[in-house]
Each structure stands twice: as structure tokens, then as C-alpha cells.
Amino acid sequence: MSHQPTEPPVPHQLTPETLTPSTPTAPAPVTHAAPDATLVVRLVDQRDHPLQPALVLTGQLNAPVRLKIPEIPGYTLLDIQGFTQNFLSAYGLTTLVYQSIWGQPVTTYLIDYDTGQLLALPRTLRGKLRTPYQLTPPAVTGYHIFQAEGNQHGQFSDQSKRVLYFYRRDAWQTVQRVHQYVTLTADHDVYDLPAGTAYGYQFPATSLWRLFAIITLTDQSVWYNLGGNQWLAATDTQRHQHWSRVMALPPKVTTWTQRQTVHWTGHVDYVPQGRLTIYREPYGEVAGQLQNGDALDVRQCLTDDQGLVWYQVGPAAYINARYVRLNPQK
């Protein structure tokens, strides 16, 4: 029995009708409910003064409140009044209370204008940042205000400030700063202040001193400052613009109780390594100096009316006998 070959089945052909494209579906619109709650946030200081415009927050009832605490320069948060985490009612109020930060201090110094010394301990004034301050010079017994440096009124800030008050003594009428010299023509007591307390010692006549200031008091007396707290009255003095001047030497000794021509030898008996002054005549001008141990040829021995002995050791050279050791004489 023979079999006839069969044809393979023809695959099913898709027609355009079977490829109908699907229509995309549009997303459902998102809807937001209208806010039905409002929270007002006030920003005030401790006196209930507004620091910034109030914040207005809106949302749904019972929804959480999203509030970031504002930072206000110069202030720090002190309290929250009416705090809430959710919108609990249609209208709500929260108050943020801030306090001012302390500013840097203002320090005052009371200074003697003429001596630079502090008249009292420094005073420190403190206050809240950006709050005002006002200063006036304090009264100081025996002084009057002379000058001020620094802002005596303003606001406390983040920078420290200082105010200097300079005072002058009531009894000081005028003060002159000078670069002069003064020769004393008489012995002078030395004082701690003009018309002040004497130290108990004197500066000798004919001495020359550097002069730093001249003070005239209200009683018209004049005082000289010789540096530091050393003062003397201007009476019996001579002022100079330069350190050099011709000094008036003490009166020469004219009364000799004894004059003796001698031929002695000896040497200077002074301090080791020291130099001894010799004079052109007793109590006269300086002629030079001799070393300790220098040999001497004594020509004359003179004794004055005070019992002081001088040796002549050259044509115009005299030395005090107390500093001479004579050699044994033959």
C-alpha cells in the first residue's frame, strides 16, 4: 500500500485586524486638599518687641508643623510659648522669645595727665549686645577733668572698648614740658611733689640738673621737676638751654695759718686703681689727675684757717695732704 506525501501545514498568517494597538491609560490626577489651618509664629524679645516679621505657616488640621527656628544675630532663643507639633485648630499662635547676647565690656581708666599714674582701679561696664551706654567722667578729689579719649556713648558690640579720662591736679595752673638745665645758686630741699613733702635731703648749691617740667601753681609759685618724683622750688636757681655753664667756684681761701717751704718726697695714697684730682691752687680749678702710687715731690706745705693741709707738688699743682704718704725724711 503506497502512501502519498502530504504538504506541511501552512502557518497561520496574522492579519492587520489581529494587531490592534492598545490605547495608553492617562494617570489619575493628584489632588491636594486646601489648607484649613494657619499657625502664626511671632519672633519677639523679652519685652515683647518684634525682632522680625511674624512667620505664617499653613497646613491641614492634625498635620505636622514643619518649623525651623530662625537664628537672629545678637540674640539667642530663650522660650517657646504655645508650642505645638501639629496644626490643632484653624488658627494658632506660637511665640518665640529671644534674649539679647551680652556685648563686650567698655573699660574706663582714670589717669593723672602729668604723671601717667592711675588714679583708681579700671572700671568695667557691661550690657546686652546693641544696647546703649552713656559715660561721664567720675569726680576725683583734688583733680579736675582735663581730657578724654574714646567714645563716651554708643552701643555695646562684639568688640571691647576703652575710654581714657585724663585729670590734672586742681592746684596746678600751668604745666610746661621743657628740655632745659638749671643751676642751683643755693642749697635746695627736694620734694615729692610741688609744695609737697620734703624728702629730708638737699641738692647742693652750684650743682647742675636736667630740667623736665616747670609747674606754676594757683598760688603763682613755680616748681621744677628734675625727673621722677623729684621737685624743687624755682627760687635761687638759674635756667640754661644747654648743659654747659660757668660755675661759680667757692671763695678762695685767703687766710693761711701756716706756710712752710719743704723738700719732701712721697707718693699718692688713694684707693687701688683710683685716680686723684689735683688743683691749680687750693680749692681752685682742676689741673689734672694722678694715679694711686704716683711719686710726689712736695715743695710747700700750707695749712688754712680750718686746719686743712695742702701740699704743693708742682708749679701749679696742689693736692690734699690726706691723700699723700710721705717718705721718711733724712
From TrEMBL:
Show the ranges annotated as biased composition (Low complexity).
15-31
**Keywords, in A-Z order:** Repeat
| Compositional bias annotation for Pro residues | 1-11
InterPro entries, alphabetically?
MucBP_dom
The reply on keyword Cell membrane is no
Q: Outline the extent of the MucBP domain.
A: 40-82, 105-168
Q: Which domain of life is it from?
A: Bacteria
Region (Disordered) residue ranges read 1-31
Q: What is this protein called?
A: MucBP domain-containing protein
- Origin organism is Levilactobacillus namurensis DSM 19117
Species classification? Bacteria, Bacillati, Bacillota, Bacilli, Lactobacillales
